[in-house]
Amino acid sequence: MPNKINTCVLGVGLSGLTFHVPFILALHETFNLHSVLERNPRVPGGKVQERFGVSPKVYKSLDDVLADAEIELVVVGTPSDTHYPFAKAALQAGKHVLVDKPVTATAAEAEELGNLAREKNLVVYAFQNRRWEADFFALKRLLQLPPSSPQSLGTLLEFESHHDRYRKNLKGTWKDIPAPANGLTYDLGSHLIDQALVLFGRPDKVTAFIQNSRGIGHPDVDDYFTIHFHYVRSSTRSYPLTAILRAYNLSVRSPQLRYIVRGIKGTYIKYGVDVQADQLSVISLPNAIHETQYGREPEYLHGTLEHIEADDVTVTKSVWPSEDAGAYTDLFRNLAAAIREGAEPEVKWSEATAVIEMIELAYESSKQGVTLDVPK
Which class in CATH covers the domain with range 5-127? Predict the structure, then answer.
């Protein structure tokens, strides 16, 4: 792609160094890591130089970033409560924006960013990278099977999606602070909700249970959620469907449960999380992203199927492999195509806004202790 996209990454903590900088560097034919925002660098190229051996410009203030006319794309990987003001400032300065989840604290803020981007003919893109994970690819492939396939689950009855872990203590980061868009529901719920909306669309009703279950840290910073999306029976849905989205910080299991999907003909069960995050946390050469084993799920984590036979008694078991490797790289390729070629973003901003809308409804449902209707 001609005219590399000059990119500035705001924040070089876990998000910047693990999920953004490696891809900007690996896709060097498309992007140029022009600069980063880092308040207190220890060397001229900051943390990027220390880890990857390259030396982008290092800015110490957002104003300096926005004043640089060479920068075309700003990646917002800073604490969650800064996502909205930083993204808004970047758009107002004429920059395209890739913003980490959660994109904002409120749906109204997300709508404002979308409107601003349209007015200025800019791209604002939500970093919903978990759409490009091996287990999600495998799940979509399974759900797309025709009903005549012997491996089809049939009409779905219940979908359960987890992101559990065992973590007794606080990590002592900004995520522990009661601030807008903080808490586990905003953090991991953004991913689980996005995947459910991609698969099934907007639910009819929402019931949620959200709390600080461990009783540590600030009580307003939740560390547990169970969210039920209710899809009622309709002319296009012969059975009601419930999507259960859950994250729990005191789950003793290895590997952790990822999916349980129940249909009238069978059940799919999947354990373990995508391998890309672990791989990205240890690579020192970004080109490792292009190696064959990058994003490739080990066979022991492949999902299993159980099907009922024609006698309605016999159950057969089989493996449903994760054939496609995870590919966060494709998010960045699509982002570049949207900026340079006007391609359709695979993560539409309206979808990112809907995620925040569902999070707000979930908090309200939990607060009131009721099931809420979802506006059409």
Answer: alpha beta
